[in-house]
Design goal:
The complex is a heterodimer.
Chain A (H helix, E strand, L loop, with lengths): L23 H10 L2 H18 L1 H4 L32 H37 L1 H16 L2 H11 L4 H10 L3 H14 L3 H8 L4 H37 L11 H10 L9 H25 L7 H7 L1
Helix pairs in contact in A: 1-12, 2-4, 2-12, 4-5, 4-7, 4-8, 4-10, 8-10, 9-10, 10-11, 10-12, 11-12
Chain B lengths: L1 H27 L4 H6 L6 H11 L5 H13 L13 H36 L4 H15 L2 H15 L17 H35 L2 H8 L4 H24 L2 H4 L2 H6 L5 H10 L3 H29 L14
Helix pairs in contact in B: 1-14, 5-8, 5-14, 6-8, 7-8, 8-10, 9-10, 10-14, 13-14
């Protein structure tokens, strides 16, 4: 957008203007697309996103309504590919709908933590001084209470509800991003272009948003990607413990806690949701690692991962 | 050194005080306030008001906070609603059980991970190295409680080799052999969780050292590879590993809430969950604080160890070495 303002001076150029060097994203994509693990992750994640979005249309049954005449059907039954649970609910449909919830939690929590963490890290790192001290002590305090315990505590005091869970996971997960952004800002704020920007009268927030944040995007995005996996795991843990997603909604974690109760009847019930979590989180982590390798200009080669691919 | 130690300790005390404030405010921010939390909901409004007055719940917040803090410093965590038991009596025994479980897993993970990581650093991208990184990926992406459930299905239900859950079989309380049998499955789950990180960590720490000039010198003067690795590289590679161990100390206390509830292990994490569903807030506050104390002590130990083991660490650095 800023390019539009660039004046085109002189007519009748003798030589063609030199091409702009490929930007961060172009080179990044080039490296990323050559990484088989990251690309597999991307394809698998895209698949899960698509079938979750399409769940209302492709799910063969209502995930919440069971047929009491057909409890605990084995996998491969007619009309119920993966069988039914103890209430006669179709497991495949439940898996599809669970995917919606898990992915929704994963992405919203990641976005939430990035927004909170970036804001706190940016203010801390740019302004420094007493603001920095206060924020960093606060980070210490948050880090001193293990996340799972903090989440359980808050959900127990308030209410175990889906939206609360997203909010709480975001409010308790931002510390890593904040530290990261602060660290980057501490380095970047000493750069000459920041000094130059200040000299021509750019406001503090202008510098933070236009100049510093832009240079910190790559690590933030890598971190956000890895947060998605973490959030999905947290959601499944909280739902498993009965503090997350509540009936009649369903999630992979909730299905697991159900499956554990009926382990003797149908051991396979515990396998499907767990596999879904494993595969999705694995894909997200592969994408995150791929992004890290692709976007980090300080790293000279992506040798490790490529050799791993052989 | 002394100055650093004092400053770092004061900092820890400050963080601890802040945590007590946060915990205290959290309870008071709950819908309905502390009255609904500390008093039984079955009481009539008059009795409730009377009890609130007796317990000092109508006093100004700062007064309540300092009274609570004063009780805490004397080891008084308050009483539960149900049965009016002292919270301490409930919490302390579970701490030991958690430490038995986590301690075994942690020790096992270390014994396997550090040599494995070192071996992998000498054979980068070999089979063993790739196996470790495969395990790490799976370990980071798998819900630990799910792994626990699968192990239960296979080893306890299908093959009937190991006990399904709990710490002892009925009537065998205190029997060491029985305890070990009950430990195997949960420890396997937890060890896998630790292993993923530790192997990666000791490998990369070792690789960093092997890249140094003095290692090249050692090789150049004709030392054998074994001597280079064990005499020269290992000692320096262990420094960052020690720090990580300090930072992970609190996991010994707090890491097992999920595994404990899968395997019905009578530890602190399971107690926390039970008390969360029963809304026993004084127990929750007590456990949160105990864990926070461990975290802070662990961080402090990590920082101090780092400073002691590595004389190059500049002690004046803000935020401490481990931050």
């Amino acid at each position: 957008m800023s390019d539009t303002a660039a004046p085109v001076t002189g007519t009748g150029r003798a030589t063609a203007p030199s091409k702009r060097p490929p930007g961060l994203w172009a080179t990044g994509w080039k490296k990323f697309s050559r990484n088989p693990f990251a690309m597999t992750g991307l394809v698998v994640l895209a698949f899960f996103i698509v079938i979750s979005l399409l769940a209302p249309w492709i799910a063969p049954h209502d995930p919440a309504r069971g047929d009491m005449m057909l409890p605990n059907l084995p996998a491969g039954s007619e009309g119920y590919w993966l069988g039914t649970d103890e209430l006669g609910r179709d497991i495949l449909s439940r898996l599809l709908y669970s995917g919606r919830i898990s992915l929704l939690v994963g992405f919203s929590v990641a976005i939430g933590t990035v927004i909170i963490g970036t804001f706190i890290g940016a203010v801390s790192g740019y302004f420094g001084g007493w603001i920095d001290t206060i924020f960093m002590r606060f980070v210490d305090v948050m880090n001193a209470i293990p996340l799972l315990f903090l989440n359980i505590l808050v959900l127990a005091i308030f209410k175990a509800e889906f939206y609360y869970m997203i909010l709480i996971l975001a409010l308790t997960g931002w510390m890593g991003v904040a530290r990261l952004v602060r660290g980057t800002f501490l380095q970047l704020r000493e750069m000459q272009y920041v000094e130059a920007a200040r000299a021509i009268g750019v406001s503090n927030w202008g510098i933070i948003i236009r100049h510093l944040l832009r240079n910190a995007t790559a690590p933030i995005i890598v971190n956000a990607t890895l947060m998605v996996g973490g959030a999905i795991l947290s959601e499944s843990a909280l739902s498993y413990l009965g503090l997350g997603v509540q009936m009649p909604d369903t999630s992979w974690g909730l299905m697991l806690s159900n499956a554990q109760e009926f382990m003797l009847v149908d051991p396979l019930q515990a396998v499907y949701p767990g596999m879904c979590i494993l595969i999705v989180v694995l894909s997200v982590n592969f994408i995150g690692d791929g992004l890290r390798d692709a976007l980090d200009p300080r790293k000279k080669t992506v040798k490790p991962r490529r050799r791993l691919g052989k | 050194m002394t100055e650093y130690l004092i400053r770092r300790t004061l900092q820890s005390v400050l963080v601890l005080l802040l945590i007590t404030i946060v915990t205290f405010l959290l309870i008071h921010a709950a819908p309905g306030g502390p009255k609904t939390i500390f008093l039984s909901p079955n009481l009539s409004p008059e009795v409730m008001e009377q009890q609130a007055e007796n317990m000092g719940l109508n006093d100004p917040l700062p007064v309540q906070y300092f009274r609570w803090l004063g009780d805490l410093t004397q080891g008084d965590f308050g009483y539960t609603f149900k049965n009016n038991l002292p919270v301490g009596d409930l919490v302390w025994p579970t701490l030991g059980n958690t430490m038995i479980l986590m301690g075994s897993a942690w020790f096992l993970a270390l014994v396997i991970a550090i040599p494995w990581g070192i071996y992998n650093s000498t054979r980068e991208y070999g089979f063993s190295d790739q196996l470790a990184s495969f395990i790490a990926y799976i370990g980071f992406a798998m819900p630990t409680f799910w792994f626990g459930i699968i192990l239960q299905e296979l080893f306890a239900l299908k093959w009937d080799l190991l006990p399904l859950s709990d710490m002892y079989s009925m009537g065998k309380e205190g029997d060491l052999g029985d305890l070990v049998l009950h430990l195997i499955l949960p420890v396997t789950v937890l060890t896998l969780g630790f292993l993923a990180g530790y192997v990666k960590y000791s490998r990369s720490s070792m690789l960093e050292v092997l890249d140094q000039d003095y290692i090249r010198t050692a090789r150049a003067k004709g030392l054998g590879e074994r001597k280079v690795v064990f005499r020269h590289a290992l000692r320096n590679a262990l420094i960052p590993i020690i720090t990580i161990l300090g930072l992970d100390l609190p996991i010994l206390v707090a890491g097992a809430a999920l595994t404990e509830s899968v395997f019905n292990w009578p530890g602190m994490g399971r107690l926390f969950l039970q008390m969360a569903t029963q809304r026993e807030y004084s127990v929750l506050m007590a456990i949160t604080l105990i864990i926070a104390v461990f975290v802070i002590i662990g961080n402090l130990i990590a920082d101090l160890l780092y400073a002691i083991v590595d004389p190059r660490v500049k002690l004046g650095r803000k935020g401490g070495a481990g931050a």
